[in-house]
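Hey,
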Amino acid sequence: MKALLYHKELTSIMGGGTFQPLLLVAELQKKCDVTLVLNKNTNLAEVCRMSGVDVDASKVDVVALDSGKSFWERFPSILALLRARKLKRLARGFDICVSTANVQDFGKGGHHFIYLLSMFGGAAFYDYMMRTKSKTGVRRTLRRVGTWLFEYIVKPLFGLRPLKRILNNPSERIYPTSRYVWDTVEGFYGRFNGKVFYPPTIFEFAGEPQKRDPLKAIYVGRIFPPKRIVDIVETVEKARKTSGKNITLSVAGKLVDSPYVAMLRKMAETRPWLTFPGPVYGKDKEEFMTSASFALHAERDEAFGIAIAEYLKAGLVPVVPSCGGPKEIVDDPALEFGSVDEAAAILSRLATDPEFAAEKHEKCAARASQFSADAYFARQRAVVDEMTGQNGDGCK
């Protein structure tokens, strides 16, 4: 049996976008001859070594859709269509076709893992997802018309199906990363065949428990505007005032010089309780995350939120927005907020009400088991069994 797995790119920068395709390749390799298709070639053995995923790279054929510099690189939309057409041609020779980079047109039934909702559809879908209010009237109508023309006029010229027709085809299997993603995609494109598949959260905490700071909150991740770090800082500032407690905040992540980072550095100058330790990895990350009691997250409309699952596994109580994937991961309305004031009220209560805090720590610890490595590998084995037809649901 021959399996093709498509992913846009693989790098040594670890994250769910790297782990999931590699882990699926490793699982498929147990039952199939696997070909990995990428936009650009990569040193698969090196990426596997850096990630720690046990893939026999010598037995995986790697095919690059881009053979080198192309004139079409200056026209990204056309280049994407040329890649899609080449991928569809490649897919003809395979029994199983898998995409871990959203939905692709294999020309036949395939398995599609949604990994970035912001890059899922065209402008009209983005407006729907973000509930865009600024693009109303003529401008929004033009974006919808542009999306329709691209999907139903341009794509067919390249021999490709519109995204909606792929999604609505029962022979295709779609794997949204959360119920939120499922509802968002279904609300715009209509019903599809599939099931929610939580992505891997491989980072595990195996060290001895250390004494936590009962008033320390943290954030781990990228530091740029969509993550709303300023909202997190304001949340802690308000919670300190309302609770009278010396709550601290430590924001871990790479500080790339920019006006946004400069603003955050300036905020830290007048807030001794706010620190930026830089990026943390491996043992340092484990020690950093298990030193705190709470975690704050403010980005909205995320497809999943791997950092939230890691917070749970580290024994933290995450306070998250009342929308998007993070809400589903935590699964506790008492820890959801719609505004900075609501987030501050939750954090203040966690800092001043020991019974409430203890209850939330216990509930979050129980929820963490859903995102353990063992739980992920069990889900993955079941999905690959479906793909290979071992439980009566193959994908030919």
